[in-house]
Amino acid sequence: MKAHNNIYGNEPADQLAKETTTSREAEIIYSKIPKSTVIGELKEEGAEERQSDRDASTKGAITKSFFPTIRDRLTQRLQMNIKQSTIVTGHGTSRSYYHRFKIVDDPTCVCKMGPQNSDHLLWECELLRKQGDVLKNRIKKAGGNRHITNSDVANKHTKLFQISVNSINFEIL
Fold first, then answer.
1. pLDDT in tens, 119-132
2. What is the band of 159 on the pLDDT scale with cuts at 50, 70, 90?
3. Is residue 70 part of a domain?
4. Does residue 50 sit in the same domain as residue 84?
5. Does residue 21 contact residue 15 with C-beta atoms inside 8 Å?
6. Which domain holds residue 29?
7. What is the reported pLDDT for 76?
8. ∠ CA 121-68-167 to the nearest 5 degrees?
9. Contact 79, 162 (CB under 8 A)
10. How far is CA 23 from CA 17, 28, 171, in A?
11. What pLDDT score was predicted for residue 121?
């Protein structure tokens, strides 16, 4: 609208526009936030809420041993399959899991060295000693610690972890 054109309300509107541009509130009202920033902040808030819920829960201990934080899991590009899922969650084709649901009478691994759970299959099973030793040696060669945790293997040595887990033959166990 042209200024000073004798149009009713033009002068008051012009005055309000000038006040708005010099007002501190205008900065807040007009500040444009990129869509990507908003999406990132919403994802972060969601992850924090899920982390809070997860921390308060007594469930998921096995998964928490591999991924202590939600962020750990979200940053990994795991190619999930039944073997990966069994190890990372403790749910699936292990004798310990089957025993929980009374599908098998005994959770003991066929190697007789302990309950067939995720830790046993990765680190202790006599029948999988070769795979476990290969995993440990490859991690050490890649600069891993002497004491390798589930979190380390899943987050710092993801590819080696996936190769090792995929080599497990659950059918003989």
1. 999 999 999 999 99
2. very high
3. no
4. no
5. no
6. 9-57
7. 85
8. 25
9. yes
10. 10, 10, 72
11. 96
Rounded Cα distance between 86 and 82, Å, is 6
The Cα–Cα gap between 120 and 131 comes to: 12
Overall number of domains in the chain: 2
On whether both 87 and 25 belong to a single domain, the answer is: no
Same domain, 122 and 90: yes
Q: Are residue 86 and residue 168 in the same domain, yes or no? A: yes
Per-residue pLDDT reduced to its tens digit, 66-118: 999 998 888 888 888 999 999 999 999 999 999 999 999 999 999 999 999 99
- Does residue 64 form part of some domain? no
Q: Contact, 157 vs 142, CB < 8 A? A: yes
Looking at the structure, do residues 88 and 16 belong to the same domain, yes or no?
no
pTM of the model: 0.73
From residue 133, alpha-carbon distances to 83, 104, 128, 137, 172 in Å are 19, 29, 9, 6, 19
| H or E stretch covering 159 | helix 158-166
Q: 78 near 67, Cβ under 8 Å? A: no
pLDDT in tens, 141-151: 988 777 889 99
The pair of three-digit structure tokens given for residue 169, joined into one six-digit string: 């033959």
The tokens describing 36, both together, are 């990507």
